[in-house]
């Protein structure tokens, strides 16, 4: 990032906080959620707020904010990239940089289940709420819903997600739900990535709230993904997951998933922002080509 751009962010945050709201108000809004072919590629950058800083073999890669913003702005500048998913701090840095004109902006809502903690499955809503997303002129909100059959506290997350889906729908905004069946193994949380578990998870997610009219799903590539997407008619975006040493295999898996009738695009963060060869533009362009 050029020093003058960093100075603008610092100046706004220290002495002109209202500049953030003004930037949001004057932002050019996208015409719709998808491109002319019904496709959407979103860059995900909400990991740091849940203490997830690792990317591949770099344990704190996402801990350098200027470097992260450089990578995100480069990704957003590539043709065919439709939007950003992020928490308020990252979204607002990008607003001040003017990087979100014409982009779908999805606010990350529940970041309370910090990675590696004893309360990781307590996915409380500590980020955006639906009213704030609507007030800032964004296009939707994303929520994580992990269901642990052995944890009675899970139901509070399910209830909170249902309320968020309903509230977003009242504003006619996308509710992007990322559902998993999860278990603690050796004290650590693991998501069950079998087709059977994902069918259960998306079935619960599809029924959240008082309407599903604005609900989309964010799902991983799993074996027999056809069975998972067949469990609902809701549109789905494929999540990118961690950085893989075999990037070609990752792209091939995304390409296969994109052939399924309800899959409309990708939501990818670290796999595109921190590719093994560090060529962000090339990785993003390849992902766009898959659409």
Give your account of this protein's structure.
This protein has 291 residues and is an alpha/beta fold. 38% of the residues lie in helices and 19% in strands. The chain is built from eleven helices and nine strands. It has an eight-stranded parallel barrel, surrounded by four helices. Helix 2 crosses helix 4. The longest helix is centred in the middle third of the chain and has 17 residues. The model has no long low-confidence stretch (mean pLDDT 96).
Count the domains: 1
The CATH superfamily turns out to be Aldolase class I
In the CATH hierarchy, the architecture is: Alpha-Beta Barrel
Proportion of residues in β-strands: 15-25%
CATH fold type: TIM Barrel
Chain-averaged pLDDT: 96
Query: What is the string of helix and strand elements?
Result: HHEHEHEHEHEEHEHEHEHH
The strand line-up of the biggest sheet is: 1-2-3-4-5-7-8-9
Q: Helical region count? A: 11
Report the strand count: 9
CATH level 1 class label: Alpha Beta
Give a topology summary.
Elements: H1 3-15, H2 18-26, E1 40-45, H3 65-77, E2 83-86, H4 88-97, E3 104-108, H5 130-135, E4 140-147, H6 154-170, E5 174-185, E6 188-191, H7 195-206, E7 215-219, H8 225-229, E8 236-239, H9 247-257, E9 263-268, H10 270-273, H11 280-290
Parallel strand pairs: 1-2, 1-9, 2-3, 3-4, 4-5, 5-7, 7-8, 8-9
Antiparallel strand pairs: 5-6
Helix pairs in contact: 2-4
Give a quick set of tags describing it.
single chain, 291 residues, TIM Barrel, 11 helices, globular
Short description:
This protein has eleven helices and nine strands. With 291 residues, the chain is of the alpha/beta class. It has an eight-stranded parallel β-barrel, surrounded by four helices.
């Amino acid at each position: 990032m050029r020093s003058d751009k960093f100075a603008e962010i610092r100046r706004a945050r220290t002495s002109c906080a209202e500049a953030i709201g003004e930037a949001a108000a004057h932002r050019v809004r996208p015409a719709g959620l998808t491109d002319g072919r019904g496709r959407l590629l979103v860059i995900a950058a909400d990991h740091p707020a849940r203490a997830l800083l690792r990317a591949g073999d770099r344990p704190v890669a996402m801990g350098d904010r200027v470097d992260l913003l450089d990578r995100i702005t480069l990704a957003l500048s590539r043709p065919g990239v439709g939007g950003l998913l992020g928490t308020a701090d990252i979204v607002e840095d990008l607003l001040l940089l003017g990087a979100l004109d014409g982009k779908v902006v999805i606010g990350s809502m529940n970041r309370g289940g910090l990675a590696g903690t004893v309360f990781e499955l307590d996915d409380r809503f500590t980020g955006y709420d639906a009213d704030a997303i609507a007030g800032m002129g964004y296009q939707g909100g994303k929520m994580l819903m992990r269901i642990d059959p052995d944890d009675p506290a899970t139901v509070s997350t399910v209830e909170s997600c249902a309320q968020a889906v309903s509230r977003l729908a009242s504003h006619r905004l996308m509710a992007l739900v990322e559902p998993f069946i999860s278990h603690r193994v050796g004290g650590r949380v693991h998501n069950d990535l079998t087709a059977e578990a994902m069918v259960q998870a998306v079935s619960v997610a599809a029924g959240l709230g008082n309407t599903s009219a604005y609900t989309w799903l964010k799902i991983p590539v799993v074996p027999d993904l056809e069975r998972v997407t067949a469990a609902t008619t809701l549109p789905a975006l494929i999540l990118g997951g961690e950085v893989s040493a075999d990037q070609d295999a990752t792209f091939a898996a995304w390409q296969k998933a994109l052939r399924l009738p309800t899959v409309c695009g990708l939501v990818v963060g670290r796999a595109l922002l921190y590719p093994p060869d560090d060529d962000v533009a090339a990785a993003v362009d390849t992902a766009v080509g898959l659409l």
